[in-house]
Amino acid sequence: MTACSPATARQIAPAGSALLRDAVEGLTGPGQKTLPCKHLYDARGVELFERITALPEYYPTRTELAILRENLPRIAAELGPGVRLVEPGSGSSTKTRELLAALGDPSEYVPIDIAPEFLAAGKASLARALPGLRVTPVRADFTAPLSLPPAPGGAHRTVVFFPGSTLGNFGPAEAKRLVDHLAELAGVGGGGALLIGLDRIKPPAELLPAYDDDAGVTAAFNLNLLHRLNREAGRTVLAPGCFRHEARWNAAAAAVEMHLVAEHPLEAELGGRPIHFDAGESIHTESSHKFGDAAIGRLFAGWRVQAFEDASRRFGLYLVTAGRSAAS
Ligand code: AVI
Fold first, then answer.
1. What separation in Å is there between the alpha carbon of 53 and the centre of ligand 1?
2. How far is the C-alpha of 32 from the C-alpha of 284, rounded, in Å?
3. pLDDT the model gives residue 273
4. What pLDDT does 326 receive?
5. Which DSSP string do the residues of 187-253 spell out, in sequence order?
6. The pTM is what?
7. What is the pLDDT of residue 117?
8. Centre of ligand 1 from the C-alpha of residue 45, in Å
9. Which atom of ligand 1 has the smallest separation from the CA of 53?
10. Is residue 63 within a helix (H) or strand (E), and if so which, with residue range?
11. Structural domains of the chain, with CATH
């Protein structure tokens, strides 16, 4: 399963030369060149992504936080006391802290991350913000089968919190598999719940600026992939100055795609294999899928879904529990 978020990238990106192996695979063959988006998140990439979330054009983070704040009392009432909150990713975010603070006496917070340093940092920042909260980090790849530690005595239900529309960085089939996996982890059939943030479909004129901001932060984020490739190769394989960032709307896939477009014809080599770019040819580096009602219905088929959305339905937080939605 591929993944493309700070959290999921840390979950599954093997260290060192994984990018080089993926680059040989994705750049030297025929057809559309690709690099997996998990490689966007080295230390510099994580820093740039943090800056993206605060950009005026990047509406998802602040819209989701506003939705959460507005609906916290309802969500907390729905979930009840003694929640064990499980978060794929290290989760020291404002959203996580505010959700935990609003829940009635949460029994435990369980961040799941493959990187011990992120788990430790998240634990420390939560301990400061919510002293007394039991935090049980789990070092694991959340996209792979895993079991949670036994729930503490007072745990009323397990809730998996997966905000940020990170699910949109997976392809549709992968996203469905991940939702099923998380539903199993939460035990949705037995009283658990999922709380998942999804960016909704909207006109490309609204979507594209979020992925091509005026300050050029997203461009730097995308081009950083080539800096990383060159650093890991120990030489310049592809000069970042020869490429420009482009955000494209793929209507058929309902996804904003990030590409790195070669400004001129280029010849390079990696792993003993030639790489050729025509002028204007691109590397596809990320897909950010957007969700309409039908796609959301497919993702959560068979469950009850309560939607918490902003007035313009730009973004939604979906609370998934056992039983069927009125609409389904
Ligand atoms: C992490 N993920 C949900 C972001 C998104 O919107 O797909 C990553 C991102 N890529 C460019 N800007 C933000």
1. 9
2. 7
3. 95
4. 53
5. TGGGT-EEEEEEEBP--HHHHGGGGS-TT-HHHHHHHHHHHHHHHHHTS-SS-GGGEEEEEEEETTT
6. 0.91
7. 77
8. 11
9. 13
10. helix 59-79
11. 6-57+216-289 (no CATH), 60-202+295-321 (3.40.50.150)
Tell me which amino acid residue 300 is.
F
Ligand 1 centroid to Cα of residue 288, in Å, is 6
Task: Tell me how far the alpha carbon of residue 154 lies from the centroid of ligand 1, in angstroms.
Answer: 36
Q: Determine the distance separating the centroid of ligand 1 and the alpha carbon of 5, expressed in angstroms.
A: 7
For position 8, what pLDDT does the model report?
A: 46
Q: What does pLDDT average to over the chain? A: 91
User: Hey, which of 10, 49, 221, 290 would you mutate to test ligand 1's pocket, going by the most ligand atoms within 8 Å of its Cβ?
Assistant: 49
Q: Are 175 and 5 in contact (CB under 8 A)?
A: no
User: Side chain identity at 189, as an amino acid letter?
Assistant: G
Q: Is the CB of 8 within 6 Å of ligand 1?
A: no
Residue nearest to atom 7 of ligand 1 (CA): 288
Q: What pLDDT shows up at residue 124?
A: 83
Atom of ligand 1 nearest to the CA of 165: 3
User: Using an 8 Å Cβ cutoff, are 316 and 196 in contact?
Assistant: no
Question: Which portions of the chain are predicted below pLDDT 70?
Answer: 1-16, 90-92, 324-328
Q: At what angle do helices 94-102 and 116-129 cross, to 10 degrees?
A: 50
Answer yes or no: is the C-beta of 168 below 6 A from any ligand 1 atom.
Answer: yes
Task: Identify whether the C-beta of residue 72 lies closer than 8 Å to the C-beta of residue 195.
Answer: no
In the reported structure, the alpha carbon of residue 316 is separated from the centroid of ligand 1 by a whole-number distance in angstroms of 16
